[in-house]
Amino acid sequence: MADITRRLGWRHLRGAPTAHIRHHRSGKLLHDGPGLSFWFRALTAALSEVPVDDRELAMTFHARTSDFQDVAVQATVTYRISDPALASARLDFSVDPDTGVWRGSPLEQLGTLLTETAQQHALAVLARTPLASALVDGVTAVRERIAAGLGAEPRLPATGIEVVAVRVMAIRPEPEVERALRTPAREQIQQEADKATYERRAVAVERERAIAENELDSQIELARREEQLVDQRGTNARREAEEHAAADGVRAEAEATRTVRLADAEAARSVRLARAEAEGAREVGDARAHAQAAWLRVHSDVDVATLHALTGTRLAENLPNIDSVTISPDVLTGLLSRLGAGAGGDEVGA
């Protein structure tokens, strides 16, 4: 849309670089070209704005295949107006001099022309193609046929239209047919998925079995090593007991030897002591015997009175100390009687 401003009864138009402006006044062409900017009077000016950029026209239409199946075709046609003067002469691209808005709908007319022409060629191709082939190879065939048909359409160059590209995005059947067509593939995919699942489960079971076998082998190996460990511990314990027993035997033998040696030493010492005591006793006895013999030899030469005197002296030496003597009348009477009896006897003897 052209940008038009007002100034004191005059109008100023400023066009875009992608818009071709044609300005006529009284049948004369005053301005012609893209991206123009000029002043004009609204009452005497005839303005046309023709877009010269590439335009995308999306279209969707229905067709029927050779096996009487309805399909929907989605396509896009890229076009541009290569001859703005010819297009403005064939189509109404005139704009309001006050607002710059198209007075007609030229782009809709172009869209209808392109859509109907493309649809005509697509229908011609699909009408001779079965549904399965149309779904597999129909996109390429339809695109090539539409491009060739639009390129050979005489009305488009006569209108100043150039087709740049044609794209066909999809050819789709009706939803029920599409679901029916999807069913075998889905069944096959499901079967493959089930097969993959079963294979995965089988692999998982095999792996679990291998893991279980490895664990069992590990447990068996561990039990075997534990058995070896127990045997080794028993052997070590027996060896240790034997070594302890041998050590105790050596210790007991040493103790017995030491005890025997001590006993022998003690016995020898006792024997020596007994011998010494016996020798001492014998020597003492001999000495006493010699002394007694000497004492007897000495006393054998002494008279009786001297012996009595020595005896009294020895007796006096061996008597205990007497501090006081108590003589009862009975004892004194007895002693006096004995003394008196002794005196009378002596006299009688005299």
> What kind of sheet is the major sheet?
3 strands, antiparallel
Order of helices and strands: EEEEEEEEHHHHEHHH
Instruction: Classify the helix fraction into a percent range.
Output: 55-70%
Beta-strand percent range: 15-25%
Strands in their spatial order, largest beta sheet:
1-2-5
Structural class: alpha+beta
Give the averaged pLDDT, no decimals.
Answer: 84
Count of discrete alpha- or pi-helical segments spanning 4 or more residues: 7
Shape: rod-shaped
Number of strands: 9
Distance between the termini: 210 Å
Cα radius of gyration in angstroms? 79 Å
Uncertain spans: 345-350
Secondary structure layout:
Blueprint (H helix, E strand, L loop, with lengths): L2 E5 L2 E5 L4 E7 L2 E7 L2 E4 L4 E7 L3 E10 L5 E12 L2 H7 L15 H21 L4 H21 L3 H5 L1 E13 L1 H126 L3 H15 L10 H21 L1
Antiparallel strand pairs: 1-2, 2-5, 3-4, 3-6, 7-8, 8-9
Helix pairs in contact: 2-3
Characterise the protein shown here.
- The protein has 350 residues and is α+β, with helices and mostly antiparallel strands.
- Helices cover 62% and strands 20% of the residues.
- The chain has 7 helices and 9 strands.
- The chain has helices at residues 84-90, 106-126, 131-151, 155-159, 175-300, 304-318, 329-349, and strands at residues 3-7, 10-14, 19-25, 28-34, 37-40, 45-51, 55-64, 70-81, 161-173.
- The strands form 3 sheets. It has a 3-stranded antiparallel β-sheet with strand order 1-2-5, with no helix packed on it. A 3-stranded antiparallel β-sheet has the order 4-3-6, with helices on one face.
- Helix 2 crosses helix 3.
